[in-house]
Amino acid sequence: MDVWPGRPFPLGPTWDGSGTNFSLFSEHAERVELCLFDDTDGETRIEVRERTAFNWHCYLPDVGPGQRYGYRVHGPYDPARGHRFNPAKLLIDPYAKSIERDVRWELGNVLPYVPTGAEDADLELDDDDDAEAIPKSVVVDLGFDWEGDRHPETPWHETVIYEVHVKGFTQRMPGVREDLRGTYAGLASEPSLEYLTSLGVTAVELLPVHHIVDEHFLAERGLRNYWGYSSIGYLAPHAAYAATGTRGEQVREFKGMVKAMHGAGIEVILDVVYNHTAEGNHLGPMLSFKGVDNASYYRLVPETPRFYMDFTGTGNSLNPVHPSVLRLIMDSLRYFATECRVDGFRFDLASALAREFYEVDRLSAFFDTIHQDPVLSQVKLIAEPWDVGPGGYQVGNFPVLWTEWNGIYRDTVRDFWRGQAAIADFASRVTGSSDLYQSDGRRPFASINFVTAHDGFTLADLVSYNQKHNEANLEGNRDGTDDNRSWNHGVEGPTDDPAILALRARQQRNFLTTLLLSQGVPMLLGGDELGRTQRGNNNGWCQDNELSWIDWEGADGGLLEFTRRLIRLRRTHPVFHRGRFLEGRIVMGSNAPDVWWFRPDGRRMTQADWRRGDARTLGVFLNGEEIPTPDSRGGRVLDDSFLLLFNAHHEPLVFTLPPRRFGRRWNLELSTAEPEASGDVFPARGLVPVESRSIVVLRSA
Predict the structure, then answer these.
(1) Taking 60 as the threshold, does the pLDDT of residue 485 lie above it?
(2) How far is Cα of residue 383 from the mean position of the Cα atoms in its chain?
(3) pTM of the predicted model, to two decimals?
(4) 390: pLDDT confidence band, cut at 50, 70 and 90?
């Protein structure tokens, strides 16, 4: 076979129509072999002789799309110095655009050492070949007809996010073809798009879709890594989510899904996991990075580089301080933003990426590189602003351009509706968390508000369980958080008590109303609008089954319609998605301030009222004539004004409405206690009954 020198860049396989250039970064390798595999797994090894800027490269004429390949990398096996080279172990290309399947653990020892079970077993090199067990990388043709596709470019303050799993969303969805269920094509199908558009969300946030590897211990237990926070291929869409094939077809199918979403006006945000890989700690498998250049790709303990720094709780941490690792992350982001046209990214355990050495640094190279990039600085950027390392909880501390999952919002709202949050804290959260985001120049949309997410109870379980019930994970119910801030309302789990069921239903409506009418960006967990339950499991990461998949047949139709109504209300009225923080004063010249807080007697909240630890009620006036942010053409935005009456007390009460300068008459918009109620009209200083643990929303007449 002819082997030409090729080029050091771009990294990975690049097909030019005549042949393929291969390039692999390894700073400490001594030799590199490119291994080509035919359809019968016959292997041809090619010595890669050219090395430029630590990139090993060659060009193979007549090699093109569909070619399966891997690498064998030679160098010292010296764990004490951080080096774990082992050419007996086939390696996945870190820049592969397509990876064909999962690891087949039973077909070979993918550990680089002899698995004796001893704590120091990793010190002894294993020379058994594992090529049969390792999935092959695949050369792909990146060509795709986008047919004039355009990004929806929904402004941040108008965004409504729907967090959803590619497989779990359509695996049981009626109307989706059987062969498309649980796939990118299923997500792009007509029933899926029709549901999302009728719900009213503007963006889907997909749980990880970079190629995933199940942990070996899960395979032994008959479980799967369902959530997918176990990435091994940062430029390859996960093959198992493809209906059309796994030799590059998954790339076209993924692009087709993005194109279909855009056609429906829906943005695609990817949950990305650049903080760690699927290779675990010093006793973990060798699949890719560990064998390509362990000392470069991972953060090692400086004094004992045999071991890994672990800011993630998974055994390892990628090393974005190394320029070539940072380049991999940026190349992955740019690839999905440009070649696959996704609209944004949510960064799992983002604090881990901002650690220059140990401390989280908002001026780190990771932030600098993104902020200076002409593409990445313009997409939606969402941080999960914590990791498990010291000082890792960084809610409110990410720089401009970034939004954040607001964990403080989640905790406060959960506590409020079980009677355990200060009223002042609740008021701060529902008005955009200015205490967290205003001082550094950010806007309310910096706060990604959520009550539930993939990690934790679903909304239905939040009101049905006091304790986690994770026995199905086969870890003795030890996994998952105990800090649920939930309330079962008197019975743990399922019940036929009509009073408890009614209260649970009302509480779900309370949470949804609070979420969707708060300033900031709401994120709805997929299935919460349907009453989806995981039967008390708050850590369904390994439950790739009906426990996690959305149960469409068991959907709560009333809750779904209520959620649609709330999303319509939010999107129709700018007063609920302001572009700037509320100030509590007159800004645009109307007769009332932009926001005014009042007690149940209709009088303004005093400092003493805000400090009351037993306060569970609050009235809020939102002025539709005090919106300073202009529309897209520079015109003034005018809206109806609203009153929100919150009662988290266990007894009903009567609110007295504010005086006439805030509004002469008010129409009932919705009540979480009586979701079908409508038509009631109340005058200024009128009396409005508010049921225990409920919300009433009034609109100016």
Answers:
(1) yes
(2) 9
(3) 0.97
(4) confident
- Over residues 566-588, the mean pLDDT reads 97
Pick the closest to residue 424 from 697, 698, 614, 653 (CA basis). 614
Amino acid at 82: G
Three-class DSSP labels, 29-59: CCEEEEEEECCCCCEEEEEECEEECCEEEEE
**Alpha carbons 566 and 572: distance in angstroms, whole number:** 10
Q: How far apart are CA 447 and CA 298, in angstroms?
A: 31
Query: From its phi and psi, is residue 688 left (phi > 0), alpha (psi between -120 and 50) or beta?
Result: beta
Q: Of the residues 348, 528, 544, 625, which is catalytic?
A: 348
Distance set, CA 484 to CA 393, 455, 464, 467, 524 (Å): 18, 11, 12, 7, 18
Q: What angle do CA 647, 623, 559 make, to 5 degrees?
A: 45
Rounded Cα distance, 189 and 658, in Å? 49
Give the rounded percent of residues in the chain with a pLDDT score beyond 90. 95
The verdict on whether 384 is a catalytic residue reads yes
- pLDDT score of 364: 77
Give the H/E segment covering residue 34: strand 31-37
Omega prior to 10 cis, within 30 of 0: yes
Q: What is the CA radius of gyration of the chain?
A: 27
- Which amino acid would we find at residue 228? G
The one-character DSSP state at 336 is I
Given the residues 102, 122, 384, 461, the one annotated as active site: 384
Contact between 609 and 658 (Cβ < 8 Å): no
Residues shown for the chain? 701
Tokens of 132: 């049969």
Give the span between the Cα atoms of 618 and 395, in whole angstroms.
26
If pLDDT is split at 50, 70 and 90, which confidence band does 361 have?
low
Q: Find all residues with CB under 8 Å of 536, minimum gap 6, and list them.
A: 457, 461, 464, 465, 467, 468, 469, 470, 492, 493
Pairing outcome for strands 617-622 and 681-683: unpaired
> What type of residue is 669?
E
In the residue annotation, 119 being an active-site residue is answered as no
Confidence band of 358 (pLDDT split at 50, 70, 90): low
Name residues whose C-beta falls within 8 Å of residue 634's C-beta, 6 or more positions apart in sequence. none
How far apart, in whole angstroms, are the C-alpha atoms of residue 299 and residue 291?
Answer: 15
**Which residues lie below 8 Å from residue 105, measured CB to CB, with a gap of 6+?**
133, 216, 219, 220
pLDDT digits (tens, 9 = 90+) for 192-210: 999 999 999 999 999 999 9
Residue 501 has a pLDDT of 98
